[in-house]
Design brief:
The complex is a heterodimer of chains A (about 220) and B (about 250). Chain A has 7 helices and no strands. Chain A has one domain: Heme Oxygenase, Chain A. With about 220 residues, chain A is mainly alpha-helical. In chain A, helix 5 (about 125-150) crosses helix 7. Chain A is elongated and about 60 Å long. Chain B is an all-alpha fold. The N and C termini of chain B lie far apart (about 75 Å). Mean pLDDT of chain B is about 90; it is low at about 5-15. The chains are: A mainly alpha (about 220), B mainly alpha (about 250). The interface of A and B includes residues 23 and 35 of A.
Amino acid sequence: MSLILRRFASRAASGAKYMAAKPVNGPTHDALSKAQKAYLDRVIRVDQAGELGADLIYAGQYVIFGHSKELRPVIRHMWDQEIHHHATFDALQKGLRVRPSLLTPAWKVGAFGLGLVGGILGKEIAMASTEAIETVIGGHYNTQLRVLANNFNDRKDLKTGENTDSAEIANIKKKIATFRDQESEHLSTAIKYDAQKARPHWLIYETVKLLTKTAVWTAERV
Amino acid sequence: MLSLGQRFSIQAKRCLVRSFHSLYHTEPPIADPSTLENKILSKAYTDFVPKEGFTEEAVNHAAAAVGTNPSTLGAIFNFTTPSRDMAMELALYHMKFARQEMYEQNKEAAGKMFNEKDRLQFYMTKRLLLNEPIIQHYHQALGRMILPSNVSESLKELHNLADDMSYYAGDKSTDFAWYSKRFAVAGAIIQSELFMLSDHSKGFSDTIQFATDRLQEVNTAGRIYNSFEEWIIFNGISTLNMIRSQVARG
């Protein structure tokens, strides 16, 4: 129980583990454009808020399923991965000086409530909402990776003069790609544990999807 | 038709609040000396403000001194600044320049300190002392910055200052505390600057004492919040455990 409540009061750990190592001789690449900076700003803010949400959704589900022999290890595994994602984006937000989402308290309460209510309504419904959330997040991460691949390849290495990714951008890309893979693993876990047996599946699935999309849209901006 | 990139850059120019600070890509200096308007403002700031204050005359004289015809100033500032007001830009130049120097001059010394509170206090003191050369004209700058048409630009710059101080002091907040902290630090900055205007003590020791007390209050407020949070979490855990033990007993 204390583990769950502690998730509400996260503090950024040392960023060194999660960020690209500080460049020894100063910057290696030429300046990012303002649009590129604005995009990265948005990416880190929305992903931090999202992973915070995911962390607390699983915390909410764990309140209910922590006692189930079948589900405890499953939820715990997914939750541990989300805790890692959350810590990563906390470190990136702090280290790269991005403003966190202003609605952070609302995301905390909302996400925990969603996990808890889903859990109370039963395994199938909890898994159906996981299915919906992870579907949206998978697409969201893919979009970000696409933009990071297409719109950031015009930055010049100061030494060689060639256009390459700086270690910073490469690190963000790598983290997002890994997390995308883990989120889609959660998606198949949810389906394996009877997400589609929820009744009415379409209603729960579409509602939670809409909720997630709205939250993503808001967290990018506010 | 503007290209997408141009439209992006125009849109981004309007937004002066700093976003995403890269460590691997070069960052332009805060008071960028490469632009024409900053060349003029820098000249005005170092050579003319101590005598003439934060006025349009100071900018006019500086323009003449760097070889720009003062009658073209209107054109230069109308198109490159949101305020379109030379005295305001001069005041903002002071804020930016002092913010830049606060970090550049003191980063080594601050790096030797061990805790966030000391560093914050250190940067605050150094920043206030950077007002010293222009302090007798500083009321003009502050008066200019709080005009209704300028207040949004001034608040952005105030946020940038509070953000820089908190970040370089080693702030670790990742949620709403991020906003509370910057808000509190910004409040302490404003109060201390107003205090400084009428401070005649030697080396502004009264102002420094005043600022230290304000930051102490910010610190205490933070500690109260954290203790309260811990107390709530502790009580939540104990209540739930008590309920569980009663339920288990049947």
